[in-house]
Amino acid sequence: MDEVASQFVTGNESAIRLAVALLLGTLIGIERGWVARSQASGSRIAGVRTHALVGLLGGLAALLSAVSAWAFPLVFLAVAITSLVAWRAQLEQHQDYSITGLIGLLLTFCFGAIAVAVDLALAAACAVVTAVILDNKREIHGLLNKLQAHELDAGLKLLLITVVMLPLLPDQGMGPGGALNPYEIWWMVVLIAAISFVGYFAIRVGGTEKGILFTGLFAGLSSSTALTLHFARQSRQNQKIETLLAAGILLACGTMFPRILIYAAVVNPGLLPRLLVPITTMGAVLYVPALYYWHTQRRSPKVDRPALIQNPLELRTALLFGALLGVIMLLGEWLRTWLGEAGIYLLAASSGVADVDAITLSLTRMSLERIDAATAVLGIIIAAAVNNLMKVGLAAGFGTRHLGQRVALPMIASLLSGLALAWLV
């Protein structure tokens, strides 16, 4: 009796999986049928019914593989040959060399087999992604037409340093005190590169019509220093919009603080509770006056976004960042041993002049083993404060006097509030 019940359950499960295979084929068939809906009946090679049956056939072939190991490959080969013959016959009438439909039909067969023999969720996910890709032919081709050569090159380089190089590096401490971990250093390089990459395309896609508010917010992901210098120079050319330019600078500088929280959340989540209050406050002190400046002059003429004159990712830049990160971690270990906490703060202040990302990632990493959380938090705050003070100097030196004042007051308030809260926390 138990054996009969077990067979009944197994049969029901197989029936359900075959039904899912049929539905997945129907899903892809609906998309294919919609694309070819204007063609006469019988002129289409594979529509809704064909894709649905091919999905079901894939599921049945997977079931038959339990009887013979040759069942699945032979049925798949039969489907592939039949499809090729049909596509070859159609090619004589229509000079269309695209094999996307053929690949979609063969994938439908595979999804049916996966639904029955492997995993329903995996088969459904693959089928949905395939349908989306097939349905967005125009959008994908349009994206390729808009893509520039140096942007494609940057994307491939990002994949190179992520998919190829990262897994090859040893995940173990090296050097003095085991301070250098090649895998973790390069993983941080990938993190920086990815954020800069996203920031670049956010600016590119957003367009100038979004104005300084959008530009300043997303430029902070890639280079708030470059934006500060660019807007400062523009303030001398058009003093009527210097308030809006100040808003853009403050937004770009404020974006640095959410970025710091992201680094901490990824590298050492235990540091977040101590960082959250001071970092959020420092960002808010910059965002509030920025939004006020923008609100008061939102009807003023908009300026062009900062020119994207560099690639979104340079491999040389990534390598230099990795070297800088390694040097900072070595110096941090040496200064910690020699001067204790005072050495960490000195390192944070000197590093913050040029870059906040490297020292932030270094201190966050060191807080896992070598320094306490309070020291890491105060060091990160010091680095961020020094970096923003440097931008105040750029705004005052290259921009108008009023621009310098509008930027300096919120920056100083942000600095003082962050240091005070970091000390208290």
From TrEMBL:
Domain DUF4010 per the UniProt entry, residue ranges: 190-399
Ranges for domain MgtC/SapB/SrpB/YhiD N-terminal: 18-141
Transmembrane segment boundaries: 15-34, 70-89, 101-134, 154-173, 185-205, 244-266, 272-294, 315-332, 344-364, 376-395, 407-424
Stored Pfam families: DUF4010 (PF13194), MgtC (PF02308)
Protein name as it appears in the record: Uncharacterized membrane protein (DUF4010 family)
Entry keyword annotation includes Membrane: yes
Record's keyword terms, sorted: Membrane, Transmembrane, Transmembrane helix
Organism: Halomonas cerina
Family matches, as InterPro entries: DUF4010, MgtC_SapB_SrpB_YhiD_N
